Amino acid sequence: MTWIILLIAGLLEVAWAVGLKYTHGFTRLVPSAFTLVSMAGSVFLLGLAMRQLPLGTAYAVWTGIGTVGTAIAGMVLLGEPAGALRLGCIALIVAGILGLKLLTP
C-alpha cells in the first residue's frame, strides 16, 4: 500500500507541475487552486509514504515519477520535443525508479 501511496503522490506532482504552466503566474483562479491542492496532496502523501520507506528512496522515487510524468506530459500536451536521446534519458530515470523499488524491502 505504501508504494501505491507514493505513486499517487508522484502523479499529483505531475498534476501540479502541469497545472503550474496554466496558472500564468497564479493569476488564474481555477488552475491556481488546482495546482495548490495538488501540491498539498502530493507532499502529504509523500509524508505518509515516508513512514514506511527510507527517506532517500521515497524522495527519489517521488521526484522520478514527477520528472518522467512531467516530461511526458510536456511532450503530449505542449508539443515539446521527443527525440531519441530525450526518451533514452527518461528511460534511464524509469530504470532508476524501478531499481530503487526492487532494492527496497
From TrEMBL:
The UniProt record lists the keyword Membrane: yes
UniProt main location, coarse: membrane
Keywords: Cell membrane, Membrane, Transmembrane, Transmembrane helix, Transport
Membrane topology, from the record: Multi-pass membrane protein
Organism of this sequence: Massilia agrisoli
Signal peptide: none
Family: Belongs to the drug/metabolite transporter (DMT) superfamily. Small multidrug resistance (SMR) (TC 2.A.7.1) family. Gdx/SugE subfamily.
Name the record gives this protein: Guanidinium exporter
Domain of life according to the entry: Bacteria
Keyword Cell membrane in record: yes
Transmembrane segments: 33-50, 57-78, 84-103
Localization terms from the record: Cell membrane
